[in-house]
TrEMBL record:
Transmembrane segments: none annotated. The lineage of its organism: Bacteria, Pseudomonadati, Pseudomonadota, Gammaproteobacteria, Moraxellales. It comes from the Bacteria. This is ATP-binding cassette domain-containing protein. Residues 53-233 form the ABC transporter domain. GO terms for cellular component: membrane. Keywords: ATP-binding, Nucleotide-binding, Phosphate transport, Transport. It comes from Acinetobacter baumannii. Gene3D superfamilies: P-loop containing nucleotide triphosphate hydrolases (3.40.50.300).
Amino acid sequence: MNTIDITNSLEKDKLVNTEQSQLTDTQLHHGTSYVSHFEPHASKKPNSTEIKISAQDAHVYYGDFEAIKGIDLDIYQNEVIAFIGPSGCGKSTFLRTLNRMNDTIDGCRVTGKITLDNKNIYDPNLDVVLLRAQVGMVFQKPNPFPKSIFDNVAYGPKLHGLARDKYDLEEIVENSLRKAGLWEEVKDRLNQPGTGLSGGQQQRLCIARTIAVSPEVILMDEPCSALDPIATA
């Protein structure tokens, strides 16, 4: 796994060495917010030479405030990347640019170019629903749908026509819950509301919901912060 460290330094052009990456970090302090400009250089070769996601001079603005400043980054097929840094430095903001979740925030705009499989994801003709099936996301706080446990996981496969029949759908739901480590805890109450689960169970339900559509990329925004200790053993 390559680690990209977004540090809290206010020094410009400071070189930071980590075990598996190097980056040039420039941060400007604006009140309580930070603007980060980083350029990662992986010291280990990726598992694939195929670039899955590429960001070229990516900037993110909230109104006139520039939250992300000029990111250039290539992420390869099957590569695992971790962004680390202090609260407010732009980790979540950048993750949300990769499946256009920032589209739902008033006043947020993205400039530069971000591609998935060499296709511009900010092309106005792009199917955003399909993009979010290809690039799934698990958030820091669990957000299950106000539906049953079964329907939470089945929603995506039904929306995208991934199940041939109800038996196929049931298999997808079970396999997804097993992969998320939740099946044994909920298999006898699949018709109960997902919102009735504990916080850690809800987060695992959201993970199952994400992997049910077999996304090509999964974005995880501190997902383990909401997991029960037993779920991380």
